[in-house]
Amino acid sequence: MLILTPAVADRPQDTHAALALAPAVFHSPVLFSGRVATLSQLRRGTPANPWECAWLVWNYTDDEHFYYLALKPGGWELGKRDPAYPGGQRFVATGSLASPVGLWRSFQIKQKGDEIAIAIDGRRLVSFEDIVPPIYKSGRLGLYTEDARVALDDVTQPLAENFDDMPRQTTAQDGTTLGGWSLPFLGFGTASIAPRP
């Protein structure tokens, strides 16, 4: 499995984020499926923020343009990173299906043109039609986190990647690759290829 572990945030105003991106750019229609988990939340001294969890990203072209699904301990959030919105973020849909720390979830994200459909653990979670330009129809897939240790495994679409055939390794270097996945930033932490627990 691929694990992202940004540095621990010791003060309320601190945050550390990490991102891993698949080796290729994919074009609509895209299907992204696999398993994901928030292994632990890393904030110390203050309660964790709701968004400190595993985020799946797709049609990522840069830090300001992509779709995401955040699987939070208290629910979920579908969004679009877009600098035209306040804070650069458009909140599209939310729900109450919780993803507690330590729980693995299977996911399937489908996007065809402006239509997005997401299933979690084989059940429909949300469908959404993005009618607000720009509509992102190509980009990379990945895993993102803020102040949480997160893992991705058993990716079956659009590439097959269970990380089992990769050598066990860890890096703390921003801008490197790990098993072909690029690591633009690690939040002063690490990325690892590790066996399943």
Give a brief outline of the structure:
This protein is mainly beta and 197 residues long. The protein has strands at residues 2-5, 17-21, 26-27, 30-41, 54-62, 65-72, 75-81, 89-95, 105-112, 115-120, 123-129, 138-146, 148-157, 169-171, 176-178, 181-185, 190-193.
Radius of gyration: 16 Å
Helix content: under 10%
**How many strand units?**
17
What is the CATH class designation? Mainly Beta
Oligomeric description of these chains = single chain
Low-confidence stretches: none
Report the principal-axis shape.
globular
CATH topology, anyone? Jelly Rolls
Given the helix and strand composition, which structural class is it?
Answer: mainly beta
The total of helices stands at 0
Overall mean pLDDT: 96
The number of domains? 1
CATH homologous superfamily classification: Exo-inulinase, domain 1
Main sheet attributes: strand count, strand direction, barrel closure:
9 strands, antiparallel
Question: Could you state the order of secondary-structure elements as H and E?
Answer: EEEEEEEEEEEEEEEEE
First-residue to last-residue Cα separation: 9 Å
Beta-strand content estimate:
over 45%
CATH architecture: Sandwich
Explain what the structure shows.
It is a single chain. This protein is mainly beta and 197 residues long. It has a single domain, classed as Jelly Rolls (Sandwich). Helix content is 0%, strand content 55%. It is built from no helices and 17 strands. It has strands at residues 2-5, 17-21, 26-27, 30-41, 54-62, 65-72, 75-81, 89-95, 105-112, 115-120, 123-129, 138-146, 148-157, 169-171, 176-178, 181-185, 190-193. The strands form two sheets. Strands 2, 3, 5, 6, 7, 8, 12, 15 and 16 form a nine-stranded antiparallel β-sheet that branches. It has an eight-stranded antiparallel β-sheet with strand order 11-10-9-4-13-1-17-14, with no helix packed on it. It is globular and about 40 Å long. The model has no long low-confidence stretch (mean pLDDT 96).
